Amino acid sequence: MHPAPSVIVFTTFSGLGFGLMFWLGIDPTPPTGWVAFVFWLIAYVMGVGGLLASTFHLGRPERAIKAFSQWRSSWLSREGIAAVATLVVMALYGLGLVFFGSAWQPLGWLGAIGALATVFTTSMIYAQMKTIPRWNTKLTPAMFLSLSLAGGALLKGNVTMAVVLLAIAGVIQVVTWVQGDQAFANSGTTMATATGLGDIGKVRAFEPPHTGTNYLMREFIHVIGRKHSQKLRIISVLLAVVIPVILLLLPIGHWIALVAVISHIAGVLASRWLFFAEAEHVVGLYYGKR
Amino acid sequence: MTTLPQLTQKKLGLVIDLDTCVGCHACVISCKGWNTENYGAPLSDQNAYGADNSGTFLNRVHSFEVQPTGDDAAAQLIHFPKSCLHCEDAPCVTVCPTGASYKREEDGIVLVNEQDCIGCGLCAWACPYGARELDAAEGVMKKCTLCVDRIYNENLEEVDRVPTCVRTCPSGARHFGDLGDENSDVSKLVAERGGMDLMPEQGTKPVNKYLPPRPKDALPEFDILAPFLEPVAQEAKGFLGWLDKTLEKL
User: Fold this and answer.
1) CATH class name, domain B12-211
2) What residue spans define the domains of chain B?
3) Is B131 within 8 Å of B143 (Cβ atoms)?
4) Which pTM does this prediction carry?
5) Residue B1 — very low, low, confident or very high, per pLDDT cuts 50/70/90?
6) Do A60 and B117 touch (CB under 8 A)?
7) Phi-psi label, residue A67: left if phi above 0, alpha if psi -120 to 50, beta otherwise
8) Complex ipTM, two decimals?
9) What's the pLDDT score for residue A225?
10) Closest residue to B99, CB basis, from A70, A207, A214
11) Which residues of B touch A63 (CB under 8 A)?
12) Could you read off the pLDDT of B74-112 as tens digits, one per residue?
């Protein structure tokens, strides 16, 4: 799959933003006043910024409002609704904390559920794709949710929680990669089933339908950079999990925490790039490619 | 509405004969022509006369080489037209967030309402066959309409009320009809020739069927007496005979 920067930025930052909102929402003694303002600002810049970035890859962004209509069947539609509902509820909750110094707790809990629902629906957009075997697994929502919760805890400054969740997220990430490497072979889709010609013999792509490229090949057949995938995986886990955990175990200060956060974000960005770049769509089989 | 109809009585679709297709791409061109000049946004090209050209097509013809497993069986070249299969369980429809993609209850045709399409591309991700292409000029998703503006069009002569790819095909490799009616010509053809689904394991239940290539003929003996005849030349003579012996000795 083509690793579109807009989608990588969107999933990374909205995941972090909604993760932070989750922890802010369930905090029994939430920060108020200016401290609350800074926390909520970070959460909203990440959450809303991520959502806005996602509209950049649309062919017709001016009609984006229509995407809220098909929640009965479409995970993308559900995600839009969950995100906007969460942002509205949390805006009220944040308003109470920042300007009135009072925690309207039920709103916080509701918003926390919404934040989780938003990250889950985002992950299901990918996990539902039978055409992309690497994504078509329960590990995809597990990975998105664990990274979001871990990153949120890190941003919130829940040190113990962040260490535990980062470790869990790291394990899920590694398992996702290992499983993902066999996913295409296990899916049972091959050039033989794609063409139906397997009964005759071994099928080979002889000539593509055109001399140039096309939308399908640009979008679904991305092989550049896969050769570095093992190195990038190691870099990603080091940055997203190992370095933040080590830094959090040190006597913590604001500057060390900032380094941990930046390292984590860089690691998640690398992981998301791999998530797209390594994903192989079955349509590539018609071109003899993966 | 992007939920799929429970059942469509009619299942209009294509039957493509891989035995007969000669790979001339006439269906590709007539499709591009008709669907650029008629219903919906035109199928644009980018940099059509440059080095890096690309464009939107609803129908593309791949060619595959198949090497049979037999000892010295000859390789076969199979031309493979591919367009929307108008699946019964169309995954492209249910993922659509705006309701632009839909499957018609009356005849099972899968269409895009271009006024509602936001060009998110998710339907193209969901389609295992690569039947949907986002038009780079218009920013909306394009796909085969089964020439919905021809097949019911009473301004056209009756003979023309079929998809343009079917009307154009010079080798009769494309057939159009109701695959929901088991007595239709196309259904009989599918039953007779063992019509198949592409990627059945994806669970899309495609309406379009592909007829596999017929088995190739074996070269017959020229004469029933041939096996009893002595071969005319057992050993090479003359210069080639000398060369053969000399090389043998080396």
Assistant:
1) alpha beta
2) 12-211
3) yes
4) 0.90
5) low
6) yes
7) alpha
8) 0.91
9) 66
10) A70
11) 98, 116-118
12) 899 999 999 999 999 999 999 999 999 999 999 999 999
